[in-house]
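quick one: pyridoxal-5'-phosphate bound model?
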Amino acid sequence: MSAPAIMVLLPSLPKADAILPYLRRIDESGMYSNNGPLYRAFCEGFSAFLANRTDAKGTVDSAVVANGTLAIELALRHVAKPNRRHVIMPAYTFVATAHAVVNTGHVPFLADCCEDSLTLTPQTARAAMARLGEDPAAVVVVSPFGGPIDIPSWERFEAETGVPVVFDAAAAATSLTYIGHQPVCLSLHATKVFGIGEAGAIVSRDLSLVQRMRGMAGFGFDGAARTSAYLGGNYKVSEYTCAVGLAVLDDMDRKIAALFDLTRSYQRGLGNGAKLQVGCGEDWVSLTTNVILPDDRVSSVLAAFEKNGIMWRRWWGDGVHTHPAFASVPRADLTVSERVAYRTIGVPFHEKLTQDQVALVCQAICG
Ligand SMILES: *Cc1c(COP(=O)(O)O)cnc(C)c1O
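yep, here:
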């Protein structure tokens, strides 16, 4: 008999008892959606949580919407330059980024990423722009599995090129170190580090941008007026979602500390050329942890995982361009993306993982 599988991801959201006091507040208010009291409390609490972890103290606001993909769509619809066809985005990302771009009426132009940071850099974006031969409507920069993004370098990029930048920082709710005036889009999906079920958020220091996002999420109503001031749709979250969100906030500091501990156990056990993403476990954590393997060891490590019942994932697959739905989208040279997609492997990472299990995974990695 083989040992039971070691799960790769086990989301853990607050238990019913932790959510109950917030549910009772819904009973009392009789408000179930439409920017009710729990929505306002959660936006405020979430913004304060982010501001305290970055150097944007006190000035950051957030619009919570139905999911992270829609957060990107709303931000893009608002900032994209009119009458431009393409949006530059990395090929190495979760496929949601590409869906969001297409849903705003744009064509993704897939750019390569930086080998060390796994992200788009202003240099790779400029190379993609040169390849494209025309100005894009926008650039979407993606946080690699929750890893931090150098936002100030993208502020300079936008100032210099006039091309608006939107951040798909889906999994980076606990690792942002700076928030400026550009929209930062987060996912609050159950599988993300700040998981509350299904939700997303647009965060910025530009308070009028956040207000616009909130308005667009609710039929383009600006404030209390029931007239559509601009185009939007219904991308709202209910008070029940915000109840879960408030319970998550209550427990976040403990959760972050536990995830840091777990990441450090991995760090101590890794060797033989295998490493974590840059800064992972030191400066930041997320809910999916990847090891980056030497190319010539990938197949033997994966075979050892299979043999020992250790689950693993290439969380972003082989890149957006390998999905049939995006097979024909235009792209720059993607040599680096294909290389990093091959060697970047999601390993078991969740709060139920024991030290012995981490040791077993590390043994399989070290060979
Ligand atoms: C999860 C994720 C999304 C999508 O977020 P949802 O809330 O599931 O819509 C988008 N981009 C990246 C990089 C993600 O990891």
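The chain has a mean pLDDT of 96.
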